[in-house]
Design a protein that fits this description.
Number of helices: 13
Strand content: 15-25%
Number of strands: 13
Order of helices and strands: EHEEHHHEHEEHEEHEEHEHHEEHHH
CATH class of the largest domain: Alpha Beta
CATH architecture of the largest domain: 3-Layer(aba) Sandwich
Distance between the termini: 10 Å
Mean pLDDT: 90
Low-confidence stretches: 80-88
Oligomer: single chain
Radius of gyration: 21 Å
């Protein structure tokens, strides 16, 4: 199979938090025998051993937009949201202006660019669009299907937070307003519970593809464990309550324990120390240095059944002992009390932390059990094979 993949970004230096996951997925596709041509929607085209890069035909415009957006945020800040999933979002004037400008200036360039790629490489079997603002590329999928007779799939890795009733992220695009989901052959979602939302928006078919992790990139390190509890992530948005309950309050009530965090915009963390914000590759060392690793999932994902995120799979790959906030459908991937622990309050978190830190003989086997489950079911190679099976059913 040969795929043209239009992906949100390939640049690991830019603040698109899912970009490392897309690198791992594209690498896994290569490893299961898929020939990948990857074109970024934002930022430069970046070659790798696992895919051939195609240009971003609107990189200059995208860079200008990003600069203007960053300047606006510096002046006006970013309004944080705590969406419940019950709101009906109305499209703001700024969002509408961005969408219409992109549809007028950017979409035609992408259509011509994809035409050239598919004409020069007629052996491409399908087009996969990953977490790109689809309301900025209206008509592209329909054009490819009509002119080139190739199926076009859209993979939304931000469900349910990306859906209109969750209002998206304050820091991101509103990708569904004004979009015609029916022009795509099928949608692929990171969330089992979010499938209905996509069908209600007009998707013809929806398949589930959970996140995973690369077992080599996130392999365990044999290092001294000088941290007691560690969390990494960006922003309080959708999870402020659990950052307080699992980090701030326990760190204040457990002066004997060393809490550490690597991330940005997380608010008051009590006694937890901030570790240097170094490269992505440093995360493995930080996680392996900690006796307990915290999984604090945003409300949108935690409240909709089996809405996957990267963190549990990355930590399981490293054999980490995971303590998690309540997360609907977490048992889909890992067994509570055997492969991870779920806490429901700050008091319970403190109790479980103290018990785990004093019982190495229980804590370490829990991490080992999670890693065994991960290797058996949840690597990105598993996900790549599942993705190929989905797409082959439409060829």
């Amino acid at each position: 199979m040969k795929l043209l993949v239009i992906v949100s970004s390939l640049d690991l230096t830019q603040p698109f938090s899912a970009t490392p996951a897309w690198w791992q997925l594209l690498k896994a596709l290569y490893e299961v025998g898929v020939d990948v041509v990857a074109a970024p929607y934002q930022g430069p085209a970046i070659e790798s051993p696992w895919w051939r890069a195609a240009a971003n035909p609107a990189q200059r415009e995208g860079d200008l937009f990003k600069w203007l957006r960053d300047q606006w945020r510096r002046v006006g800040g970013v309004k944080q949201t705590q969406a419940s999933g019950k709101q009906i979002e109305t499209e703001g004037l700024a969002d509408k202006l961005v969408r219409r400008t992109a549809q007028t200036l950017i979409a035609p360039r992408w259509q011509r660019h994809v035409d050239r790629i598919l004409t020069k490489q007629p052996d491409i079997d399908a087009v996969l669009v990953i977490t790109v603002p689809l309301n900025q590329l209206g008509g592209l999928a329909e054009h490819v299907i009509t002119r080139h007779h190739k199926p076009v799939f859209f993979y939304d890795g931000d469900v349910p937070a990306s859906l209109p009733n969750f209002m998206g992220f304050a820091t991101g695009f509103r990708i569904y307003q004004g979009a015609d989901l029916s022009e795509y052959t099928a949608f692929i979602s990171n969330s089992e519970g979010g499938k209905k939302g996509l069908l209600d928006l007009g998707a013809r078919a929806v398949h589930t593809l959970f996140y995973g992790a690369d077992e080599d990139l996130f392999s365990p390190l044999d290092v001294a464990q000088d941290l007691d509890a560690f969390f990494y992530g960006h922003g309080r948005e959708y999870r402020a309550e659990w950052i307080d309950a699992m980090i701030r309050e326990p760190s204040q009530h457990m002066p004997e324990a060393r809490f550490a965090v690597r991330g940005t915009h997380l608010g008051d963390l009590g006694r937890a120390e901030m570790l240097p914000y170094l490269s992505f590759s440093k995360l493995r060392e930080y996680a392996c240095r900690s006796k307990i690793n915290l999984v604090i999932t945003r409300k949108a994902h935690a409240s909709v059944f089996a809405s996957s995120s990267s963190r549990p799979f990355e930590l399981a790959s490293m054999g980490a002992c995971m303590v998690c906030n309540p997360y609907e459908g977490l048992e889909t991937w890992f067994e509570p009390e055997k492969e991870l622990i779920i806490v429901h309050s700050a008091a319970e978190a403190i109790e479980r932390y103290r018990w785990l830190l004093s019982h190495d003989d229980a804590r370490r086997p829990m991490g080992q059990a999670a890693r065994a489950r991960f290797l058996n079911e949840h690597t990105f190679r598993h996900r790549a094979r599942q993705l190929v099976t989905i797409m082959e059913s439409y060829l």
